[in-house]
Amino acid sequence: MLTLDTPLTKVVGDRTAKAMADELELQTVRDLVRHYPSRYARRGEMTKLTDLQVGDRVTVLGQVRKVDTRPMKNRRGSITEITVGDGDSSMRLVFFNHKHARLAVGAWGLFAGTVSSWHGQLQFNHPDCQLLDESTDAQEWATAMLPIYPASKSVSSWVLQKSLKLVLDSPAAADQLMAEDPVPAPVRARHGLMSLATAIWLKHHPETPEDVERADHRLKWDEALVLQVTLAARRRAAALEPGIARPRRAGGLADSVDALLPFELTDGQREVGDALEAEIGREQPMHRLLQGEVGSGKTVVALRAMAQVVDAGGQAALLAPTEVLAAQHARGIAGLLGPLGRSGELDGDPDGTRVTLLTGSLRTAARRAALAEVADGRAGIVVGTHALLSEGVEFADLGLVVVDEQHRFGVEQRDRLRAKGQRPPHVLVMTATPIPRTVAMTVYGDLETLTLRQLPAGRGGVSSSVVPVREKPAWLDRAWQRVREEVAEGRQAYVVCPRIGDDEKADERPEDADGAPEGGADGGSERRPPLAVLDVAEQLRGGPLAGLRVEVLHGRLTPEEKDARMRAFAQREVDVLVATTVIEVGVDVPNATVMVVMDADRFGVSQLHQLRGRVARGRHPGLCLLVSEAPVSSSTGVRLAQVAATTDGFELARLDLETRREGDVLGAAQSGRRSGVKLLSLLHDEELIAAARSEAADLLESDLGLAEHPELAAAVAALNAGDRADWLERA
């Protein structure tokens, strides 16, 4: 008798089972029945050929319209060309030395292959073919919904369909196979959910779109409830984890920081600060995500929290993604604290602390001194890059970890820093634009969040516009004119390019943090190389920005060179800084008011938002110009227009999700198709997720907890198995 744990080798044979395991990660009957169709087709329907891209591997449904077999001109043998269509458009199937006699005009079939192009026409070379059974009842045959499964080179959609028939040949078979339902009966009754067996049967054998919708709703509950119970159990366990309370001390460094601030805190900063103060003052380790708009003052909030920990005898570590940003943070904090940040020096205040910078480029003597200050506790505030994670970096008493721009660091990296505390330290991670996985985990309930939306008083604000250079080339000339106008008013500008230049093979890639689309301006395969800093800077010096002080900044410079050029820009010795994304996060030059992003379509949504946050950081309004060759009406052009239309980072995160999905909420992947949940959607299922979270809390708070629900407990245990449990524990 088959069970969900039966290996597929006993169902489909060794060869097919191996292909399923290697290419689709399907190993058991459970994996197979949970391998859901990606879409459904009816006879006469096929994927819109205008939507196909060369290189895509797809399955299409169509009718044979024409068959032509002829000898090849330059070698022995024959070539058979078969045209298939759906009534509106067509494509070509090409076979060499193989006539495919069954593919006669009028035959319907499924055709799977990799899309190629010949003389401008889309085609499949030697596709896999599955003719449909014409002996079926005509009405049924014409209206039946055909499941199209995510497939691979060796395992086609119809192989998966046939395999599923071996284990699910009737509703009764589904009832027998899916007898153990992870969603408890009372929960099903409260929310009007069908049984798991019915949902699985309808998902693979629907008669109407409504069947699919009802099955999806039930199957999403499976995913949401199991995930929420897992996360709730983790939160309950974390609440029992002993840490060290770091309460605020009156008259200490935290009060001095407030007194030294050259501006009034916003109401939002005070509210968030009060929440952090209370949590840091408890023994239970805090783990907060601080989401705030670009320029909303997250760093000040973090500094006040760090000062509180220092007052309580602990140390605070600020982890920054780049040396430029780490050095800027260290200078800014030290400059604000003055003598209070130079304890132990001749002009230092003995009641203060030390601000120590630790990066990978420090020379041996400076690194040795910094390590000593961290190890013996003299450094109360330690600012650094990945170097903080290195072996040999030991803290005397690490009480707070602050991670700036958290999407630049993996969970494992944050965990390595957190492990340097004698007891679990408090953790604060910050981001200006919630990236998909972060938003997903927030809504799913794994992170407790705080939000800063209010900008400090006196900020000029930034407006954005798209410069479509193909359709309106004169607009680019006007963009450079606007840069000259801003410089003439005594202000400064950034010009951002996707790469450095000199034909480098490896470079800072704009998509590394945000999943910018690959291919052409609208997904095509033919594309010129991205514009480069060195080339653009030279063109600007000799052309539209001639006479201005133009300098470059990129990742190939030494840390000393980068620091020197940023200092020169900050001190107004440079008018225009042409840079890569090295300036993306945290760089703070209040006098910079305009940014021109070249090849803006090469950057992702969140990254564009981060980049434009570098301007309008002072009292003057800012302007961000997104230069792109993408047609205005293309999907890329529309995406850029949406970015330009809003400065709401949370709205942009949702826009990002529209094209990228949530990613693997229980794995290391930031985005893409491999997802820990198959059907659940952040954009469309927030109410369902919230309801599942409430049910999960009630189930765990009952007298017997999951002991009353062994099927749910087994599903939770399966989710907690292996690497996913380790990752979730660290997250």
TrEMBL record:
Residues 499-529 are annotated as: Disordered. Pfam families: DEAD (PF00270), Helicase_C (PF00271), RecG_dom3_C (PF19833), RecG_wedge (PF17191). Gene3D superfamilies: Nucleic acid-binding proteins, P-loop containing nucleotide triphosphate hydrolases. Residues 475-658 form the Helicase C-terminal domain. Residues 279-452 form the Helicase ATP-binding domain. GO terms for molecular function: DNA helicase activity; hydrolase activity. Keywords: ATP-binding, DNA damage, DNA repair, DNA-binding, Helicase, Hydrolase, Nucleotide-binding. This is Probable DNA 3'-5' helicase RecG. It comes from Klenkia terrae. The gene is recG.
